[in-house]
Specification:
There is one protein chain. The chain is of the alpha+beta class and 346 residues long. It folds into three domains: 68 residues, no CATH class; 109 residues, no CATH class; 110 residues, 60s Ribosomal Protein L30, Chain: A. Helices cover 60% and strands 8% of the residues. The protein has 18 helices and four strands. A four-stranded mixed sheet has the order 1-4-2-3. The chain is elongated. The protein starts with a helix and ends with a strand. About 3% of the residues have low confidence.
Amino acid sequence: MTVKAQLDNRAVKNFPALGIKVNGIREKVEHARKLLPPPASMTRSVFRDLTIADSFSRHRDSVNAGMHMLKVSPYYLIYLGQTPKTINAYLSKFALTTDTKTGLLEKFTQAYTAKGTEIYTKLRAMYMETTQLKHILDTCPGNLKAYYDKQIQIADSAHYAFLFDYTAKNGWPDIENGALYAGYMAMRDIEHCYDYIPLTYKAYMAGQLPYFMAHTIYENWRYYIDYVIWKEYIKGPYEVFDVSTMLTGEMPATVPSILASMKAHCPVKEIFYVTYSGKRRIDQGAWLVKYGKHFEKSFFEFHDKVFTNCPQIHLEQMDRGIGPGIDMLQLPTDYKGERMLFYIFY
């Protein structure tokens, strides 16, 4: 989408500051766009060494498997979730000599038990907080998902501000100083993607980030506009409801609460849906093929129920840009599967 098209968006008209924001990042955009996508393979990288060690292990080549495994940073293994209790079983999956395995265990234990740097400890703690909240979100009942979504937003806001300030002053940290935890946050921080693309591209080329992180951060510019629109709206009063079951043709259990909210706040200022996909690159065509038949039926049934509680909303008027509008924003996520949230702004 061009900057002009972005500025013509109804949300930008409602919030002139969005136009200033979009125009204000032109230099960053131009600099980031000059970079080619990160190359898929690096000849020298601790992340690639782990893959190569696994490949040699499959061929029972313990010499080459051990040579590459010894180059893998123990901090990468810690990021992958290994602990002193699990590392022995993990290493047993590789074809390693006894001496190599002993050396790797010592190296790992030393890194795990050592007091990390202040920035490493800080970034890892932020990562642990987010992943714990996400686990709760993925496993909690549907009526609690909106609450935990909000808790994640609060945590993310603090984490993103810290990382942005730190990297602006210090550049990207290396692996021993929490590069992987910073990468995890940057993958999810779409607002600062244009700041992070050059930094993480350089870190990846230096072997300090894995490909999937560098590539994900590079691709985040695709969602920038939807993200800043969503971020601007949620500064004002709103209510949000999980309506994910509509994707499979089932009316959401939140309908009674939505009806009460529409009636209480009518005429509403704006309505929009936010669709989240576990695939970082949302393919609208594939999404409609997957859910179209079931979603279309539940979507219109849902609207028939909801809009009777706010007569000022007319779909025909919305199509012509008159009165409150319905927007469908798309944002990537590392949540499991697809989700849909329904926002009411008043």
